[in-house]
């Protein structure tokens, strides 16, 4: 984070070494404290400007960054958005219903649990997940167009898509795998024989 030129009440650039206390309510200030005698972390001005590092934590959210002069009344603030990382771990898939008739028209809606990054943060809306089945067809439209297969986009960390039965009975192995990251999951849908 870099400030503009910090000035006194008359518009003069403050002296080199003027101490400014910096803080964040999310993540960590990584720049070393130059004071040692004042509470918090102080950085010193150079040509009226301060610059300091803010490292994200493992939580997503908006970090409120503040800076206030140790002496005088100069202050300022800004925000940094911490985004979730890439999808990671197991994608739980639940078909509803879990069994459908192998008539070429019956459908089952597959819904995931919340997809997260390695730190348990819900992935961003629009995160692409490739879905597939080895029996029947997926009727949900591909939202990507650029990636092989059919992609659906996460909303609130959840995906949902429709599998239509074929005319052959059996067990459909239904999968989901993130385009980026390493999240994946699978479930099964039973295609039952129809009436004689």
Topology (SSEs and partners):
Layout: E1 19-24, E2 28-29, E3 41-44, E4 54-55, E5 61-69, E6 75-82, E7 87-88, E8 93-96, E9 99-101, E10 107-112, E11 116-117, E12 128-133, E13 137-138, E14 150-153, E15 160-164, E16 170-178, E17 184-192
Parallel strand pairs: 9-17
Antiparallel strand pairs: 1-3, 1-5, 2-4, 5-6, 7-11, 8-10, 10-15, 12-14, 12-16, 13-15, 16-17
Notes on the protein architecture:
With 196 residues, the protein is mostly beta strands. It contains no helices and 17 strands. The strands form five sheets. A five-stranded mixed β-sheet has the order 9-17-16-12-14, with no helix packed on it. Strands 3-1-5-6 form a four-stranded antiparallel β-sheet, with no helix packed on it. The termini are far apart.
